[in-house]
Structure formats: structure tokens, C-alpha cells
Amino acid sequence: MVYVDDIVLTGNELTEIRHITQLHDNVFKIKDLGDLRFFLGFEVARSKRGINICQRKYTIDILHDTCMIGSKPISTPIDYCTRLHQKSETPLSDTDASDYRRLVGRLIYLTNSRPSITFVLQNLSQYVSQPHNDH
């Protein structure tokens, strides 16, 4: 048994893409969802001038879900000298820890278009098993 969640086929030759899609359908019985609009947090928009890929909607959704839609941007989200520790004073409640894990998971997709948050996210992801208030 083979299970694949999503496959994205891209290229300049539409006939070749259709051929490959048909081959996959013959073997695996796939469903063609049509033109790509959203994938892994990316929004794909087509126009006569080309294809635009961005994560604007995904970012706004995260800001909205975390009640931070009106927050002001900063140039560096964390001081590179800041040291977080595995154990701190106050562990998060089960609900807050779950929210923390979900947020870190969602932010991972933003590192594709926002490399400036990679360092911070790498640090914060080390504490998903036991997040504390400092994290």
C-alpha cells in the first residue's frame, strides 16, 4: 500500500504533466486537484506576467490566531546573546504547551520565505517537549 498526501507537478510542458498525471492515475488512482493555489503555507497566484509565490495569507492567519495582528514588527525577534534554558521557573500549562507546540510547528513553514526567523525558531523548537514561561 502506498499513501502520498500531496504531489505537485510543475513544468513548461503541459502535455508532459498530463502524461505523468495519467501514468500515476493508472497505477495509484490519484485525484487531480487542478491548479495549485495553496501548498505548505505558500499562496500561488498566476497572472499574465508570471507566477507569484508568497506566504502573506499564512502569516496573517498566524498573527490573527495568536491575537498579534496589531503588533509592531521588529528587526530581530531575539537577541543573539539570549540564552534559554531547558528548566526555568514556571512550566506552561498543558493547554499553553499545546498552543506553543502548534505555533512552533506553524512557524517552521515561514522559515522558507523568512530566513531571518530561522535562528529564533531553531532555539524555540528545542523546548517543545517541555516549554516553560521563558520560552
Using brief descriptors, characterize the structure shown.
single chain; 135 residues; alpha+beta; 3-stranded antiparallel β-sheet
Q: What would you say this structure looks like, in words?
A:
This protein is an alpha+beta fold and 135 residues long. The protein has a domain at 54-125. It has 4 helices and 3 strands, in the order αβββααα. It has a 3-stranded antiparallel beta sheet with strand order 1-2-3, with helices on one face. β2 and β3 (50-54) form a beta hairpin. It is elongated, with a radius of gyration of 20 Å. The relative contact order is 0.12.
In short:
With 135 residues, this protein is α+β, with helices and mostly antiparallel strands. The protein has 4 helices and 3 strands; from the N terminus they run H-E-E-E-H-H-H.
Structural class: alpha+beta
Poorly predicted sequence stretches spanning 5 or more consecutive residues: none
Shape: elongated
User: Largest sheet, described in full?
Assistant: 3 strands, antiparallel
Radius of gyration over all CA atoms, rounded: 20 Å
In what order do the strands lie side by side in the largest sheet? 1-2-3
What order do the helices and strands come in, and which of them pair?
Elements lengths: L13 H15 L9 E2 L2 E6 L2 E5 L1 H10 L28 H17 L7 H8 L10
Antiparallel strand pairs: 1-2, 2-3
